């Protein structure tokens, strides 16, 4: 496969779907459904996912799909797309940025193409196997912060699964006192690509799904960063826990997260 060409085609699909999302948001009344506690979906999430799936099917007919809203829920033998049509739906509903389209291509169990298109600021982050990481036309790399004390750290606040709440509060207490500060943007895919381009030095969150992290985590690694789960293993796409950062702070950060949040 020509991964670079595939990545460029996926960027086009993401950009055109982003335009569709913006236009629909202006013209239509939002039809909002509740999927679970504080977990929402709009008719635009569903329509966007259909458009993305239709576009991707033409690119690689044999691939399967793991998509948040369940469009084409079939697995491919070798290739699978992992898709979040709008990551940051709560922001989107409230008219806030960021919100992003996240598309990853998985070959066997490895990501080979990742695209995160942040619609609000019209920023496309992408990379492919064997390539560098990009924001629009520019290559990107993770930050050079040397310690957690020098880091701006992104996270996500629990909103429906409170099982690790106690440890999470302890981690916030620690990072508020021992870093440049914490941020909660409301889109995990955006948090990750902001680590990839050095706006954030690191990010951690629990209870994320494969479509929240698959593309963004790949782009962090391609931009020279490191990613792990809360036990410092590599089960961060399907394992619902992620720590992503530049290289220099990774061991220190993942040690703190591990100590405070694994119990
Ligand atoms: C959500 C966002 C948010 C994270 C949530 C996700 P959605 O995705 O990534 O930042 O904290 O856990 O579910 O529902 O807007 O696609
Ligand atoms: Ca999401
Ligand atoms: Ca979503």
Molecular structure report:
- With 263 residues, the chain is an alpha+beta fold.
- It has two domains: 3-139, Fructose-1,6-Bisphosphatase, Chain A, domain 1 (2-Layer Sandwich); 148-261, D-Maltodextrin-Binding Protein, domain 2, CATH 3.40.190.80.
- 36% of the residues lie in helices and 27% in strands.
- It contains seven helices and 14 strands.
- Strand 7 and strand 8 (133-135) form a beta hairpin.
- Bound molecules: D-MYO-inositol-1-phosphate and calcium ion (2 copies).
- One calcium ion binds at residues 84, 87, 211-212.
Give me some keywords for this one.
single chain; 263 residues; alpha+beta; Fructose-1,6-Bisphosphatase, Chain A, domain 1; 5-stranded mixed sheet; binds D-MYO-inositol-1-phosphate; binds calcium ion
SS elements, strand count: 14
What name does the CATH topology of the largest domain carry?
Fructose-1,6-Bisphosphatase, Chain A, domain 1
Number of domains: 2
Quickly count the helices: 7
Q: Based on the coordinates given, report the CATH architecture of the largest domain.
A: 2-Layer Sandwich
Query: Strands across the major sheet, in which order?
Result: 3-4-5-6-7-8-9
Please write the string of helix (H) and strand (E) elements: HEEHEEHEEEEEEHEHEHEEH
How do you describe this structure in short?
This protein is of the alpha+beta class. The chain contains seven helices and 14 strands. It has two domains: 137 residues, Fructose-1,6-Bisphosphatase, Chain A, domain 1, CATH 3.30.540; 114 residues, D-Maltodextrin-Binding Protein, domain 2.
């Amino acid at each position: 496969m020509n991964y670079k060409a595939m990545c460029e085609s996926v960027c086009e699909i993401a950009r055109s779907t982003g335009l569709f999302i913006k236009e629909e948001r202006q013209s239509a009344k939002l039809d909002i459904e509740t999927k679970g506690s504080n977990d929402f979906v709009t008719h635009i999430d569903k329509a966007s996912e259909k458009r993305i799936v239709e576009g991707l099917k033409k690119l690689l007919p044999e691939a399967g799909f793991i998509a948040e809203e369940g469009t084409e829920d079939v697995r491919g033998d070798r290739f699978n797309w992992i898709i979040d049509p709008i990551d940051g739906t709560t922001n989107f509903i409230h008219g806030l940025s960021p919100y992003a389209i996240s598309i990853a291509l998985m070959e066997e169990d490895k990501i080979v193409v990742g695209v995160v298109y942040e619609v609000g600021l019209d920023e496309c982050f992408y990379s492919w196997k064997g390539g560098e990481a990009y924001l629009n036309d520019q290559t990107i790399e993770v930050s050079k912060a040397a310690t957690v004390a020098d880091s701006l750290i992104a996270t996500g606040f629990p909103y429906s699964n409170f099982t690790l709440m106690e440890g999470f509060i302890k981690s916030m207490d620690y990072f508020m006192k021992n870093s440049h500060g914490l941020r909660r943007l409301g889109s995990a895919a955006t948090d990750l690509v902001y680590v990839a381009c050095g706006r954030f030095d690191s990010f951690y969150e629990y209870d994320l799904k494969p479509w929240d992290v698959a593309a963004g985590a790949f782009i962090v690694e391609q931009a020279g960063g490191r990613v792990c789960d809360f036990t410092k293993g590599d089960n961060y796409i399907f394992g619902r826990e992620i720590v992503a950062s530049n290289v220099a702070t990774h061991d220190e950060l993942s040690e703190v997260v591990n100590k405070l949040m694994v119990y």
